[in-house]
Amino acid sequence: MTNFANVERRHLAALFRRVGPEAPTLCEGWTARELAVHLVLRDGRPDVLAGKALPQLPVLGERARRSEQTLAGLPWEELVKKVERPPLYSPARLGPVDKRMNTAEFFVHHEDVRRAQPAWHRRPLLHDEEKDLWSSLTLMAKVLLKDEDDSLVLIAPGHGAVRGGRGKSGTVRVLRGTPSELLLWAYGRREPAEVEETVE
């Protein structure tokens, strides 16, 4: 079976090459270069990500800053190659691990770049790809939706339903769409995600 995470990784690298390092993305106001740096660090330098999360720790925080600066200063093609092929020691080199940890990550960030460009269009995904994204969403829904005061029900026809939210408001919001669009919505890409929402 095809590893959809790896497919998305290759597609995103190709898109990075087309749009260039200064292209906008939907991800936290980052440019394509900043997003590429994030992906390289995520795949190969978990210690640096820890330093970014805890910048007050002197050694980790300084290491994170230096690593980010070094990667950001690389020629664009060299940086994109690092996105395309994680280092040999990375868990992302192991197909099952890559699929588990990167399917949602690379799909969402691929769409972050695609949908930030003018005249983007929704792309059709294969049934197995949608199925993989649904598996990712069912695993992460509670965490992704934990800050929502409403009760949420995300329904993907032919795949099932997942629930999330704190339910404090007494409102139940039902969102319907494909697994891919619901995943984008759950990841906070609310405006570009093509979902149908009703309140019950």
**Residue windows where pLDDT falls under 50 for at least 5 positions:** none
Overall pLDDT: 89
Strand content: 5-15%
* Rg (C-alpha, Å): 18 Å
Q: What strand line-up does the widest sheet have?
A: 2-1-3-4
Q: Can you walk through the features of this model?
A:
The protein has 200 residues and is α+β, with helices and mostly antiparallel strands. The chain has helices at 4-19, 32-44, 46-53, 58-72, 76-84, 95-114, 127-144, 179-186, and strands spanning 151-156, 160-164, 172-176, 196-199. Strand 1 (151-156) and strand 2 (160-164) form a beta hairpin. A 4-stranded mixed β-sheet has the order 2-1-3-4, covered by helices on one side. The longest helix is centred in the middle third of the chain and has 20 residues, at 95-114. Helices cover 54% and strands 10% of the residues. It has 2 domains: 4-114, no CATH class; 129-199, Nonspecific Lipid-transfer Protein, Chain A (2-Layer Sandwich), CATH 3.30.1050. The protein contains 8 helices and 4 strands.
